[in-house]
Amino acid sequence: MKIKVGVIFGGKTVEHEVSIISAVQAMENIDEEKYEIIPIYISKDCTWYTGKMLREIDIFSDFDNLKKYSKKVVLYNKNGRFLLQTTGFFKSVVNELDIAFPIVHGNNAEDGTLQGFLETIGIPYVGSRVIGAALGQDKVIMKQVMSAEGLPIVPYVWFYDSEYFIDKEKNIKEIKELGYPVIVKPATLGSSVGITFVKDADKLEEAINEAIKYDTKIVVEKAVDNLLEVNCSVLGNYEYQETSVIEEVISSEEFLTYQDKYLGNTKGGKSKGMASANRVIPARIDEKLEKEIKELAKKTFRILNLNGVCRIDFLVDKKKKKVYVNEPNTIPGSLSYYLWEPAGKKYPNLLDDMISLAIKDYKNRTKKINSFETNILSNYNGIKGIKGMKNKLR
Questions:
Q1: Owning domain of residue 235
Q2: Exposure winner among 42, 69, 95, 169, fewest CB in 10 A?
Q3: Model's pTM, two decimal places?
């Protein structure tokens, strides 16, 4: 019997369309001899849909067509069965899942929001759990954790939008002390949305205001001299990690932009997700640097409680050969399949490994104690019951 995999994608996020591309790519490569694919699309208004046509990328260009060929559903747990049920007055079960496979990007989705919902239902799911997903999305807390663990990161400052509005001179002074140029980022977004490279003080406020459009928390990083951007994907869990080949990403700007990532090699504006980016594989680095980056990738993966496939991005000062961990991508664009194929792992095999890891993780977690059979409220009897319990606890 085939394992029923619910591929969840979309969501209320600025990376909505990128998620669709990544999910459709994955659904085209999941081994259908072993798995039954059930697409689950979350629209921008947070409505859930399912239907076979959601496996076709063209349907998403017309929302009316999408509604015509799919059904609104909710996912819930009924006696240990994970069911997709239609909404409305006449409800019916349209499918059942064995495991969920979130392929979502950005805040309100990849940041632990969806993972928390799946945890509440109790369904097994692929990828990082809530804490890893949340750490991987918030660039400030992520840096604080990495710094505490001794991982090399670039100097940075951060602040809330409210703090900036009250006393922006204080924040500007802190940024000046970092030294220009700097990179201004929204703290919880991905895909280079809202990011600006700032060469001097003249453009700083404009850059901060741009980032504030997207987030309440802003991070400003010291730009790396003689910059080389490289990425390494990691597959595994807390017990075991393996690394892909390392890519050297070619940017048309001072940093890797949304255009570079998703439209770099495309013709006619048709994106293949992160597979569209301009890159050199393997990266043009020496063996010593390659080894250091791979070890840092595995260490970052473990420290941040990541799981499944992630992509760890690095900044390298080519002259000094100094490596900095930039950030992890807990559900990377295109699931970084293009970094595994040169290492001999085809995309269907990578997806199979991810699902197998999730099943193993679920089995391990269900062996742990998650609740107690005893009920401390069994003797509760209003105010009188509370007094009785207090006497027993003394």
A1: 225-361
A2: 169
A3: 0.88
